[in-house]
Write a structure and sequence with these properties.
Two copies of one chain form a homodimer.
Chain A: H1 13-20, H2 24-31, H3 39-52, H4 58-65, E1 70-75, H5 81-96, E2 100-105, H6 110-122, E3 127-130, H7 141-145, E4 150-153, E5 163-167, H8 169-182, E6 188-193, H9 198-213, H10 220-223, E7 224-227, H11 239-253, E8 260-263, H12 266-278, E9 288-290, E10 307-309, H13 312-327, E11 337-340, E12 343-345
Parallel strand pairs in A: 1-2, 1-3, 3-4, 4-5, 5-11, 6-7, 6-8, 8-9
Antiparallel strand pairs in A: 10-12
Chain B binds a DNA duplex (30 and 30 nucleotides) through helix 2 and helix 4.
DNA sequence: CATCTTTACGATAGCGCTAATGTTGGGCTA
DNA sequence: TAGCCCAACATTAGCGCTATCGTAAAGATG
């Protein structure tokens, strides 16, 4: 077989045209199922393309079409099951729409986030789905300026004026807190991360309101146990559980004996369980424990942990659809803010 | 300020050239720090580019340079901590080398894998890191044909003749099995997935050899408990643990009382623990349990699970470096096959 | 002061593709 | 059979960038 590619690796449209005896344009129309080619030549061309292993050059195609059929996803780390589920679902949705996914990780670092945004801009993406690291929104303004559709998830930046999809943290904390209060808990402690995220602030605020609705006092010194921020976001590690173990142990050793714990992450419950077990405090008899996130191991904890199923798949689905609508120009010009209510999962840790 | 972009969204090199009064060529040289521009004009150009928010068009750049500075990663699902760690590390390494990462998921489906490969080829990637779904290698030959550097991880396809990096499954199963045998176990059961992967075959084979080295018989009907393949790979779920629970319960209810379990995934140990607990079989007093993977929850199981730390980060690091070497043409033409030995982590579940 | 070199830039071409516009010839109608 | 239409192709141009070569002016050299 003659080398149609003139020594180049991949055959081009022109190579195909030379072989078939037609012009590159016709080949392009044939392969992309555009009109203007007879059925027989179309078949011939497709067969020849297959035979030569022709793969269209996306660089050229992207250049002329102005699109790469790629959306970017910026999240802090995919070791967090929430984000891995989110990214998985985005990939699935994008793939079905003929888009591929560029993954950029920020590792909870503002600097890395800035870098990720920069790389996203330089990658010629059609759109971007992002869970921002921080409260400062101006890191994202270049994306807006560049006219690249942006949809935020998980953490809101209202100043940006872009679509936002998230799990409903307020509804979530209300569901979990009310569940233990309904069982008669009078002294509930919220064990959560000590970070200045809007999500966490919303949780604390919602927690406070739930207590007050039930006529219970809220004193931050008594009702809050804050876990120092995690140190590494690179790998799936259990520092969360460790830190929670330490914080819970301290609290218990200071003689505090709440009758219920509500936590901001299932991993905290893992550490909390150990602290309680060591002190022979029984769940649920002596204390109720309510998780957050429905991590895969929670069903197998002893006792099985009541927790909150976060609808991250649904968040991802809606965010991706919205982004694709924006990319394809089929979106209305309204700015959507949706918070999807999570689902309470009651297991033995809050059953009496 | 005059609209230099003629109504287009993003300013181009030409726009910049018009503003500064030079040619696009000079602008390009200035911005990319290539010689042929005086220091003063270079500074001027950069300042102007900054002012106008100029972002180079990657599509055009990729077309002329023939590279997109992007590597693809094909894995089955990122809900598996192994793969999420792998992808994270690849992203980190790639990013440091100035590359971005395109994520493609195959969900353990041969069909989806084929589609992912197809999309990878059409995405104009510079290279590809992949954990194949199946044993059939011909799905990957188009990648080789297209001349795109490919590095496999986790699952080997020797016929392809490409670099391969993995954790050492044989060494791993030897480490875990020998650990329980060293404690005097005489009747060990391997609880593993019932799938035709080379990794699992290697585990079973290594398990058999370990038994025989210790003068113990290996009868598949007694020493093997196989868990049906997982049903969904989309989300982080605990079907693994469920299935293992069922298989272990069956085994125990048939009256089998092995003195040690070695499992192929920490999630199996989670289900196994429950099956044992329900039958008041104590770990480690009545039976030893050895995990696999060092999932973040294992330290907090009761008793803490001995397990195997899989060096997925190291695998990712080496694979990425090798791929980048291949892309940049700095690799020798040898085909590397490396298996990195995992690290045994002894906890209470195998302590007497 | 003629010649050579160097610096700083411009002019041109082309990467591989698609969109827009031409061109041809065969079939149809009146 | 003149006139028209339309399917099936070709021709041309251009997306935004970089590489290559060309050129004018300034400086170096004897």
């Amino acid at each position: 077989m003659a080398d149609v590619t003139n020594g180049r690796r991949q055959p081009t449209l022109q190579d195909l045209a030379n072989v078939v005896g037609l012009t590159a344009n016709t080949i392009s129309r044939a392969l992309n199922d555009r009109p203007g080619v007879s059925a027989t030549t179309r078949a011939l061309i497709k067969a020849e393309a297959e035979r030569l292993g022709y793969v269209p050059n996306v660089h050229a195609r992207s250049l002329v079409l102005g699109s790469r059929k790629t959306i970017g996803v910026i999240v802090t780390n995919i070791s967090n099951p929430f984000f891995s589920d989110l990214v998985s679902e985005v990939e699935l949705q994008a793939q079905e729409a003929g888009y591929t996914v560029l993954l950029l990780l920020s590792y909870e670092s503002a600097e890395r986030e800035r870098d990720a945004i920069d790389r996203a801009l330089r990658s010629g993406l059609d759109g971007l789905i992002a869970a921002p690291v921080q409260e400062r929104f101006n890191a994202w303004t270049p994306v807006i300026k560049a006219g690249i559709p942006l949809v935020l998830v998980s953490r809101e930046l209202p100043e940006l004026g872009v679509d936002f999809y998230s799990t409903d943290n307020e509804a979530g904390i209300r569901l979990t807190t009310d569940a233990v209060l309904a069982l008669g808990a009078k002294d509930v402690v919220l064990l959560d991360e000590d970070m200045p995220f809007s999500t966490i602030r919303l949780r604390i605020e919602g927690f406070r309101r739930s207590l007050e609705r039930h006529g219970l006092p809220f004193d931050p010194r008594h009702q809050l146990a804050l876990v120092p921020p995690a140190r590494s976001f690179r790998v799936s590690q259990s520092w969360h559980a460790d830190d929670a173990y330490r914080v819970a142990s301290d609290l218990l050793d200071r003689g505090r004996r709440p009758d219920a714990f509500v936590v901001g992450d299932d991993y905290y419950a893992l550490g909390l369980y150990r602290a309680l077990r060591e002190r022979r405090i029984r769940v649920p008899d002596d204390v109720l424990v309510m998780g957050w996130g429905n991590h895969p191991f929670t069903r197998f904890m002893e006792p099985p942990l009541s927790t909150l199923l976060l609808p991250f798949q649904e968040v991802a689905r809606r965010a991706t659809r919205r982004l694709l609508d924006r990319i394809q120009g089929t979106a209305d010009d309204q700015i959507i803010t949706e918070r999807i209510v999570p689902e309470l999962i009651i297991r033995a840790s809050t059953t009496r």
